[in-house]
Amino acid sequence: MTSRLVAAVAAKFVSWWDARRPTRESIVVSALLVLIFGASYLAAFYVRAELLFKPSDAATIQQTIVFVVGVKFLVFYVRGLCHRPWRAARFADLNRLLRAATLCLFVFVAANHFGYHIPGWVPIPRSVLLLDWMFTLLGVGGMQAIARSVYEE
């Protein structure tokens, strides 16, 4: 009984990994996503501070940007958003984008809530989290729309 369960889980993992195996196109999309994630995080701080970067914000950015971009990339990669070509974007991809960005938002809110127990933790302002969520949706969704528009013309 347990050997069947282990075999079924192993087969499920292999099929999951085959769908997410890195390809040339997924590597390019992943690099663009990392750039969009970094830009959206910086834009969130920029808009929050009324188009100025404060020294306190610079310290927060330096200590948290790797965490934020890394978590976003991991969530988007695992959810399969790096493996579908942007030139074939459809409404279902927008739905997956919304779910992945919202999951990232929940992860960051939870990290802010429970991070106070970790020595040296720097919290991310809530307004930055919401702005980052919005800019991530606009950035990634906009790039998918532009890629589809260019491909169809």
Question: Could you characterize the architecture of this molecule?
Answer:
About 20% of the residues are buried. The model has no long low-confidence stretch (mean pLDDT about 90). The longest helix is centred in the C-terminal third of the chain and has 27 residues, at about 125-150. Helix 2 (about 25-50) runs antiparallel to helix 3 and helix 4 packs antiparallel against helix 5. The protein is an all-alpha fold. It has helices at about 1-20, 25-50, 55-80, 90-115, 125-150. The protein has five helices and no strands.
Topology:
Blueprint: H1 2-19, H2 24-48, H3 55-78, H4 91-114, H5 126-152
Helix pairs in contact: 2-3, 2-5, 3-4, 4-5
Summarize this structure as a short list of keywords or feature phrases.
mainly alpha, 5 helices
Structural class of the helix and strand makeup?
mainly alpha
Q: Outline, from the CA principal axes? A: flat
Fraction of helical residues: over 70%
**What's the N-to-C terminus distance?**
55 Å
pLDDT averaged over residues: 88
Beta-strand content bin:
under 5%
What is the strand tally?
A: 0
Number of helices: 5
Task: Give the C-alpha Rg.
Answer: 18 Å
List the secondary-structure elements in sequence, H or E. Answer: HHHHH
Low-confidence segments, ≥5 residues, pLDDT <50? none
Largest sheet: none
Quick structural overview:
The chain has 153 residues and is mainly α.
